[in-house]
Amino acid sequence: MLSYQHGFHAGNRADVLKHAVLDGLLRHVTEAGGPVLHVETHAGRGVYDLKGAQAAKTGEAADGVIALMDGNRPRPLRPWLSLVETQGVGAYPGSPQLARLVLGDRGRLALFEKHPAEYEALTGAFEGDRSVQIRKMDGYGGALKLKPRAKETLIVFSDPSYETIKDMDELAEWTPRALNRWPDALVVLWLPLFKDEREAAFGAYLSELEDGVIAGARWPSPDGRDTALSGSAIVAYRVPKAVRDMATSIASTLNSVWSS
User: Fold this and answer.
1) If pLDDT is split at 50, 70 and 90, which confidence band does 7 have?
2) Distance CA 221, CA 229 (A)
3) 223 pLDDT exceeds 60?
4) How far is CA 225 from CA 6, 19, 46, 221, 233, in A?
5) Residues 127/83, Cβ–Cβ less than 8 Å
6) Which residue of 29, 119, 188, 233 has the fewest C-beta atoms within 10 A of its own C-beta?
7) Going by C-beta distance under 8 Å and a sequence separation of 6 or more, which residues neighbour residue 36?
8) Integer Cα distance of 9 and 153 in angstroms
9) Phi and psi for 3 in degrees, rounded to 5?
10) What are the backbone angles phi and psi of residue 148, rounded to the nearest 5°?
């Protein structure tokens, strides 16, 4: 489906866990040294205006990143929150821009986005940046055709919209193919957590594919809001222990913050 636009949800609580963990992973890989190829199957528009019309329509960022920036910033999230503050809420970095900022000259980006409006915004965000390749095509099939250069660390990040159950089915089919295609890649998935726990069987399936970490956080239902989403999780394969510990610490901290 091509109806989903992340601008309505950018900076919300789901983004907080997702982007804080991804930021930590990218920083760890950068500090380890060497070139990096960062691939995204569903890139979105890359940069978001949290004061713009789309974000204002839902107001979700107010309970997410903005609340953390305006409050006592939890220690495990401070590096990411500092980066967001540097960019400003009018240019909130989605995962592609986050990767570009953290990796710097060390990283190449290969981004896939099918939605026409999102693709147009994405190409505009990275116009003239020769280290970023953007393709308007199916991210699952397109990504599997890629191969890292010699000595490049490959990070593959998949963040579909989960508008329908088909999105889970497609990711369930693609993930083992990705793990087999790139035996040394760091494969990272975002997983929504629903009130009815419809994702439970899917999460169990993902946990059995290969050794990895699942770090998730839930929040109580906002007053007056009818939403099926009640949490956010990251599934990461082949990441080092330091990254596992970081992801778990961020998730645990957010569970405490959002339950208080």
Assistant:
1) confident
2) 8
3) no
4) 18, 24, 27, 7, 21
5) no
6) 119
7) 29, 30, 103, 106, 107, 108, 152, 153, 154, 155
8) 30
9) -90, -25
10) -70, 155
